[in-house]
Amino acid sequence: MRSSDGTVHIIGAGVAGLAAAVRLAGARKVAVHEAALVPGGRCRSYFDHTSGMLIDNGTHILMSGNHAARSFAEAIGSAAGLWSPAEAEFPFVDLASKARWTLRFNDGRMPWWVFDKDRRVPDTSVADYLPLARLAWVTADRPIGEVTNCSGPIYERLLEPLLLAALNIEPREGSAKLAAALLRETLALGGKACRPLLAQNGIGNVFVEPAVAHLRRRGVSVTLQDELIGLQFANGRVAQLQFADRVETLGGDDAVILAVPPYVAKKLLPDLTVPTAFRGIVNAHFRTDPPAGTPPMLGVINGTVEWIFALPGRMSVTISSADRLFQMPREELAQTIWNEVAAVTGLSATLPPMQIVRERRATFAATPEQNALRPKAETAWTNLFLAGDWTATGLPATLESAVRSGHRAADLVGERVRAAA
Ligand SMILES: Cc1cc2nc3c(=O)[nH]c(=O)nc-3n(C[C@H](O)[C@H](O)[C@H](O)COP(=O)(O)OP(=O)(O)OC[C@H]3O[C@@H](n4cnc5c(N)ncnc54)[C@H](O)[C@@H]3O)c2cc1C
């Protein structure tokens, strides 16, 4: 088979690949090839027959400062599927002390909330917040534990929950540079950038299915169960794509965006440097109506549970950097988690219908060492570009990173075409 009409082949229909495809659709002929039965990669929703619910592989949280992810949702017409509170507020409960409080960031850049004891973290003073500014403007990449004090109320009740969720790693060993990027794009911009955004009816219904429908309406082929197994090179370019069932020979105008996970990219391009260590995430979904008054998103301190989400007909729990829980028997883990949810919400301790999703390689391990292994979008081959949350976006491995990487790869394809013209 020969494609010589300036086709951009996008390998991988995760959010990075879909974002690249949406950016290019209309301007170029685009073909998306996805190995799995379904698109979405690490960001997907599906009907779980065991619990009888539509669930997400992981309850995804965005922040209102995630401008690329939001613009992607707007481009595919699904932004209305993201719920957000009117204000940037985060209710918390401490399971040890039973204390409850709500962090309330004010909208503007000037952090007035720090001066208001009803808005800031309990048992803190204004001076406790100064180290946050230092962390936000760190230059060399070192473990967060070497840059800021990882103890005391400001750490336990603000930095740790925020960084654990965003970096998916025990913050002490996490990359200070990635933490800094996060702080600069959220807290430093004020509450307008800190409102949480939550897909109440499935993350796939915001970022995946609408993207695929949008692409197909624009004549882009999105082919599932279409695994790329090899690349052939000639004259500094990708010359052939080897799929499981065929070989496609590329023409001079064709380009390739490889938007696969790092361990797949490494198999296809053995000389590529990629992150090699990962961290898992556990999500638990319980089929029950959340009691009236339960906040849509509740941070939990001093528990196994880290975040509780109250969604229509379901309560979900997220635990980041959760590798320690991967060996625990499913029922025992579910009951451990549910006991905490019941304690916080007043629901009965009897386990409702549930599902546990353990994603082993949820994100690359966000240490300084692994962060340094992230490759740029450009490669040694003139028509091959990389995308994925693990490429060198400067952000933690998040939807925002995935979308930005897809946009960057798409823009590079455009630039190369203009340069060749
Ligand atoms: C449980 C969990 C919770 C998360 N929570 C959050 C959150 O709250 N907020 C947030 O912003 N982010 C969150 N993330 C991270 C977010 O999901 C990822 O950053 C994002 O989905 C990564 O997208 P991607 O396209 O870079 O990679 P992937 O989703 O890994 O996509 C790669 C795609 O390539 C396909 N592929 C692989 N090999 C081949 C091949 N040979 N040929 C063709 N196709 C191939 C794969 O099947 C996959 O579809 C979470 C992730 C997980 C797992």
Set down the secondary structure blueprint.
Layout (H helix, E strand, L loop, with lengths): L1 E2 L3 E5 L3 H10 L4 E5 L11 E4 L4 E4 L4 E3 L3 H9 L6 E2 L4 E7 L5 E6 L24 H7 L7 H4 L5 H15 L8 H10 L10 E4 L4 H4 L1 H9 L3 E3 L4 E7 L2 E7 L2 E5 L4 E4 L3 H7 L9 E9 L10 E5 L5 E5 L2 E6 L10 H16 L8 E11 L3 H4 L12 E3 L12 H22 L1
Parallel strand pairs: 1-14, 2-3, 2-15, 3-11, 8-17, 15-21
Antiparallel strand pairs: 4-5, 6-10, 7-10, 8-9, 12-13, 13-14, 16-19, 16-20, 17-18, 18-19
Helix pairs in contact: 1-8, 1-12, 2-12
Bound molecules: flavin-adenine dinucleotide.
Note the overall shape. globular
Radius of gyration: 22 Å
Percent of residues in helices comes to 25-40%
Name the structural class. Answer: alpha/beta
Given as residue ranges, the uncertain stretches (5+ residues, pLDDT < 50) are: none
Quaternary class:
single chain
User: What does the largest sheet look like?
Assistant: 7 strands, mixed
Average pLDDT, all residues: 95
**Ligands (ions, cofactors included):** flavin-adenine dinucleotide
Quantity of strands, as a count: 21
Distance between the termini: 26 Å
Number of helical stretches of at least 4 residues = 12
**Spatial strand order of the main sheet:** 9-8-17-18-19-16-20
Portion in beta strands: 25-35%
